[in-house]
Amino acid sequence: MKNILLLAIYLVTYFTVTAQENQKYYFNENDEECPVENAFYYKIIESNDAQIIEREYYISNNHLKLTKNSDKQGNSIGLVYEFYPDSSLMSIYKISEGRFVLDLSSYFPNGQKQEEISFRIINHTNTLTKDTINIRIENSWDSLGNTMVKDGQGIFRSYYSNLKLKDTGLVVDGFKNGNWEGFSTEGRVLYRESYENGYLIDGMSFLEDGTQITYNQLSIQPEPAKGLAGFYKYISKNLKYPKSARKNDTQGIVFVQFGINKQGQVVNTKILKGLSADCDAVAIEVIKNSPNWKPGMLRGRPVNVRMILPITFKLS
Questions:
Q1: Which residues on adjacent β-strands are paired with residue 301?
Q2: Which of 105, 110, 146, 186 is the most buried (most CB within 10 A)?
Q3: For the chain, how big is the Rg over CA atoms in Å?
Q4: Whole-number average pLDDT of the chain
Q5: Does the pTM exceed 0.85?
Q6: Local structure of residue 129 (DSSP, 8 states)
Q7: 87 φ/ψ angles, rounded to the nearest 5 degrees
């Protein structure tokens, strides 16, 4: 279920997504951005007048890992495809504008279908809770084609590409129920969670050093320490219109990418799509100097999250 969760985090990100041509990013096996020397795969983002094109490639052999097209507002166009390192199909899913409906089919490396899942984000809020998210497990199979879940009933098991168990639990009427467990590729227990009709009741993460962390919310997006209203107030107060831009009647939008690290600090600020040198510099400066945020959380643990903010320069 890892892909589902990561996608959920992406869909409720606050800001409109855009991109500049040939942006390249590196990620480890846990889908965390990292230095190139620690990367498992890399992502290239390109943009034209009509759409944003995302492609991911495995570091080991440069084979395609993922392909996705979006419009300028970040809405997915068509289907998203994921592949194993040997180029066999891993999954197909579709995102629809508005309700953000996701229908996912995933496959084992041998081509056998692994699972069929539908996904809904009910409301646009900062926290993924029982009121904002709805995941329904329709059907699942093991690598030999034996049925594990049929028409929303059964014991669900998902697997890593090496066929090691990833997570397992009871499915009733399509929803998670009872106790669920998740495992690392080495078989270590990563978390235990309790569900009722698809709603998380409580959970516990197990760290490698033996630390146990309890939680009752699966995922929480980063949030400005003084709330979004306070953050926008800070932007309005501190964003100065460059004199050169006023003189040249320069107007438009600067798209700024920045990270919120595990400590809630604003890091790695960069321009994704600029307007002018002076406007870009002002936008970077105001984001770099912004107050700390509450970090994003995943299963009770702080995580690094990348954000994108459009800043509008408009003369009255």
A1: 298
A2: 105
A3: 21
A4: 83
A5: no
A6: S
A7: 80, 5
